[in-house]
Design a protein that fits this description.
The chain is mostly helical. The protein is about 80% helix and about 0% strand. The protein is rod-shaped and about 100 Å long.
């Protein structure tokens, strides 16, 4: 037995398989096997042994038709080519991935903004309710304040579950309504109370609709859609009161 040939072949194949699709496939199967790691090990090892046997037998057949020195030159050239391709792929993949997946807004960031908007709205309605002299208006403002605080709890739960999720790659802060429009102080505005409050609710609804459009996760999309509909309902109730 030629130990030199054995060791050189072992090192070559071992290095070639590191990070290869075969190894990644084995890792994925192990992760989803429910702890049956040795079953995956023996299955993957058997598959590699069989595929290697096919390669060895094929190589043995080739030696009967092609001179050995030609096979060695061809094999050496192929290894050099494969090495160049691997280097090219390793160097170009980060740039390609960055181009394909540009950084977008994180769900945690926009949910933090949403929480701030809802908090400001709840406090505004509480202040307005304390100042209102009309019983019907006071009751509506108190109810709206309670609902805005309920929205905050929805947002907190969504943030805890999806904080690191990224919105669609094209999502940019410029595409969302102005934060000043969403967090202005309705209770101390110079404009008519109801007009200002309605504008606030409609702007917040637009904010949630845009988030629903940009969110890749269906459950989170439903959350944003529900919040948008709730804000529009607030605006309708305020309009009906006016």
């Amino acid at each position: 037995m030629s130990w030199k040939l054995f060791l050189s072949t072992f090192v070559l194949i071992f290095l070639a398989e590191l990070g290869d699709k075969t190894q990644l496939a084995a890792m994925a199967r192990t992760a989803s096997s429910g702890g049956a790691k040795w079953v995956v090990f023996w299955a993957a090892s058997s598959a590699l042994i069989l595929s290697t046997l096919v390669a060895v037998l094929f190589g043995h057949v080739l030696t009967k038709f092609i001179p050995e020195h030609v096979l060695k030159l061809t094999a050496g050239g192929l290894f050099i080519l494969f090495g160049i391709l691997i280097l090219y792929q390793a160097l170009s993949t980060p740039r390609a991935a960055a181009a394909k997946h540009p950084s977008g807004l994180m769900v945690g960031v926009v949910l933090k903004w949403a929480g701030e908007f809802e908090q400001a709205a709840a406090e505004d309605y509480e202040t307005l309710a304390s100042q209102a002299t009309d019983p019907e208006l006071r009751a509506l403002l108190q109810k709206l304040s309670a609902e805005e605080r309920d929205h905050i709890e929805h947002i907190k739960r969504a943030s805890a579950e999806h904080e690191t999720l990224q919105l669609a790659p094209e999502a940019r802060e410029a595409e969302l309504p102005e934060r000043d429009t969403l967090s202005h102080d309705v209770a101390h505005a110079d404009r008519p109370l109801l007009e200002h409050a309605i504008e606030h609710e409609e702007a917040t609804a637009q904010f949630y609709r845009e988030l629903a459009r940009l969110t890749p996760l269906r459950s989170l999309k439903r959350t944003f859609t529900t919040l948008a509909e709730a804000e529009l309902d607030h605006a309708r109730r305020l309009k009906n009161l006016g």
